[in-house]
Amino acid sequence: MVETIADRIIVPLDVPTKAQAIALLDQLPQVTFWKVGLELFVSAGPDILTELKNRQKKIFLDLKFHDIPNTVAGACRAAARYGVDLLTIHATCGKEALKAAQSAAVEGAAESGNAVPNLLAITVLTSLNARALAFDLKIPLELPEYALHLALLAQESGLAGAVCSPQEVKQLRYTCRDRFLLVCPGVRPSGSEAGDQRRTLTPCAAMNAGANYLVIGRPITAAADPALAFHQICEELIVKPA
Ligand code: C5P
């Protein structure tokens, strides 16, 4: 099936209960790709994935695994059995853990007869700025070099792609070439609140810089009219195509 601009916008179900998630799904039937993150998965469990599957939605299971190789492999094997489309692990787990996670995702998918999920590496969270990286985390590299280094580590380890800030996507796209998936949160249509995000760009700028998918949450879900907010973002992307 041909992917439309709307299919490239992933909306997070960042709510605490299954009932609230279902209310959001009902409110935005035109959204085809949903993200289930830590809050909802911890509170509602895998039932929410079944709900999304029943509605023929694509699923980004964003649990950002970070652990030793054996543990992340077990988690990825289990997640792949749910038949999700995208899955995340922190690149800072290291090469051995990334490779083990990738192999386990392939095994989990084969065991359950599902397609292999695209395993994405989290590079540098979009809520961190250069100051936090240097002073709090004591990372000696600057952005985007550090994000680029982590994306290349993921690529060498056989992962399908990475999650990065829209401010780094241009350089990552150039270096990692065309087939590496780049998913950008931290996207803010002009005039919307940044909230806790620190390294943002507009949807058009992020797509033009090379993102495959955009994760856009509060500018849609916290809008007075979420359906209108989603529509306006799609329109803007169609008028100024990537
Ligand atoms: O509401 P907002 O658009 O900021 O939502 C962004 C979503 O993307 C959240 O669900 C957040 O967990 C996720 N995310 C992020 N930064 C990353 C990876 C994922 O903001 N590096």
Helix-residue proportion: 40-55%
The total of beta strands comes to 8
> Alpha-carbon distance between the termini?
19 Å
Discrete helix count: 11
Description of the molecule:
This protein is of the alpha/beta class. 44% of the residues lie in helices and 15% in strands. It has a single domain (6-239), classed as TIM Barrel. It contains eleven helices and eight strands. It has an eight-stranded parallel barrel with strand order 1-2-3-4-5-6-7-8, surrounded by six helices. It is globular and about 45 Å long. The site of cytidine-5'-monophosphate has 17 residues, from strand 2.
Topology:
Layout (H helix, E strand, L loop, with lengths): L8 E4 L5 H10 L5 E5 H7 L2 H8 L3 E8 L3 H13 L4 E5 L4 H18 L5 E5 L7 H7 L8 H12 L4 E3 L5 H8 L4 E4 L18 H6 L4 E3 L2 H4 L4 H14 L3
Parallel strand pairs: 1-2, 1-8, 2-3, 3-4, 4-5, 5-6, 6-7, 7-8
Helix pairs in contact: 4-5, 7-8
The protein binds cytidine-5'-monophosphate.
